Predict the structure.
Amino acid sequence: MSISQQAFLRDAMRRLNLTRDLFAARIGVKRRALDTWLLPEGSQEFRTMPEVVERFVGEIVQNSDLLEKYTQSAQPGPLRDRIAWRGKHQLISVDQFTRESAEDLFRVADMMQPIARRRKVSRVLEGAVLGNLFFEASTRTRVSFGSAFCRLGGSVCDTTGFTFSSMAKGESIYDTSRVMSGYVDALVVRHPEKGSVAEFAAATNIPVVNAGDGPGEHPSQALLDLYTILTEFSRLGKLLDGAHVAMVGDLKYGRTVHSLIKLLSLYKGIKFSLVAPRGLEMPEAVIEQAARNGNVIEQKSSLAEGLSGADVIYATRVQKERFIGEDAESAYTPDFQVSKATINAYCSPDTIVMHPLPRDSREGANDLSTDLNDDSRLAIFRQTDNGIPIRMAIFAVLLGVEDLVQHSMRDVTWRHPSHVGPDDSSFHGLD
Ligand code: NCD
């Protein structure tokens, strides 16, 4: 570079009309990393920016279309209006997001981190009640939505399964939704049928969040997955534009991958390698939607072909409960198991391994192997932890309190371990 790194970055920020915080967010790096790149070259803390960042920023400032796209512009209206679902403050599909609005939500999630990490408390949702309606199995999604609402000062009422709900008596979605709206201030709904949560949303004016509609979508999971990828990449000095993302497993019925590939495709030049057992491939309609912004989607039949050089491996569980005539037993052979040996064979030390969980750890399941548990590339628990700030951000935005959070925070009164899991490494980012 002929000019200094400092001058180059300062010039880019000026042309883009972005503050350091916004510039760091726009190019997908941590503010801390950017600060070290902006120091004078002789100083002790100075770091050279990765070549990929230099190329990316250089490309933006030289290309007028890109410059316009990345330039700070006044976004019209509050985030909840920009992501509205058919005019209502509801979250049904990732299609409600642009890259900018997703990143705006992540800034709200960043603000929630001190609360999620049990350093601060807030009561901005004091008095509000959440109805958590789960008509399908769930552990983390139900509890993390509930916990996120409670951590903002609200209370939660839960129902689980059809058996103990009035739906077992033949009640319609319309009636259930309208009745619940009289009792609670927001609804989180999981239901085994695709499109069902949109039906709940149509029958009420209160915020409804889709926590999984059969093989359809799982938008909050995709948002926390994207947030995790951006956070991990920032630590590793990588950019999502131009990255290689491999998705492995049941891509036909896995709603998490349907939402995630659509959300990731808001970025540019991503190479997606889809590795699925025969008969469980990603639906064509989802692939068509994800093939935009110069993204390339390749379907591969083996881990060897799909994982080589991947920056992210996203493994999934076989959704046997959704099979209609598929041969459940033979679908997921050991050839599809992501294990330490697989990662060592095909990936680099800075590949990250994700999974929406639960992983099937029973013998013969061939799901993501537990032998990666002490490997820092395994990001699954960092991923689940991110479910809290993301779901807090979703509630704060949908209920219109995100501007109150910062000033509402007080110190916690109880003591909390610095690392919640015995295997958490320093990579966990809790420090
Ligand atoms: C997933 C789901 O329910 O879609 N779990 C989750 O919400 N994190 C994945 C699965 O069940 O396999």
